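Table S2 (continued). Query chain:
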Amino acid sequence: KYDKRGQYVVTGADDQLVKLWNVRTGCLMRSLRGHPGVITDLCVSSDNSLLATSSEDGVVRVWNAADGTPLTLLQGHTDTINYVHFHPFYNLLLTGSDDGTARAWDLGKLKETTKDGPSPLLPLAPDALPPPRVFPHTPPGAAAGAAAGGGAGGGGGGGGAAEQRSKVKCISVCPLGGFLATGAEDGVGRIWSLAEVEREGGRAEEEAQLLLQAASGVVDGSEGGGGGGGRAGVRRAATVGGPQPSPPQQQLQQGGGGGGLGQLVCRLQASKTAVTDINYSNLGDRLFTGSMP
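Corresponding output:
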């Protein structure tokens, strides 16, 4: 993937290495070592300061994108991490895993600011960061049990609701900032609220401006339109301007502090097979899902 300025490309492979390449010369700038497994995904933050990488070992590593210094580890997933994504407005990193959860990690402590401006990026111990908000992907009948017995911590637990969770394959953040969409192996797209997640710092002013722009215009929530009509059987669009809330048994209780369980807003029965890609439209009024035929 490119960095946000198009100056270098970051790659990850089955040699367990993350490599940064100069776009103009094609020369290798540096190699980052630390993952003991295949690199599964990577992402550069919107301000180009952080690089996050994930692996089959279930650990996310966060690096200083400028010089490759390792900054912290995000531990809690118990299986392969398929997706990492920085929130465009807040100091959040979003992850999705084969352990059946998506997680929102608050990285604000890595990017604290002072009256003189941003402070230098310094390494932090994993336990110095607040616990993540967890979004468990359970079948409708098991949601209540997950809220009651499936803890929000990183442990996998042995059995119960944890065994019924569906692998998270993809993630998309609403352009207006308030919602997270996930696609899972059970063919269901889920929309989650980020309202209760700690979101200090970041680009809150930009989100407020986008919300004002959206409120001043008319968002088209009608069916039809849009591209990709020829692949309607594989790629679907759902209007998400005003999703219906889930039944009470599907509402997950909020946890305290920075951790706890995320709030499920609605489920979208997108496919009979795994949802392998999910994306919001640029206006945030539609959600597109892709799946295996």
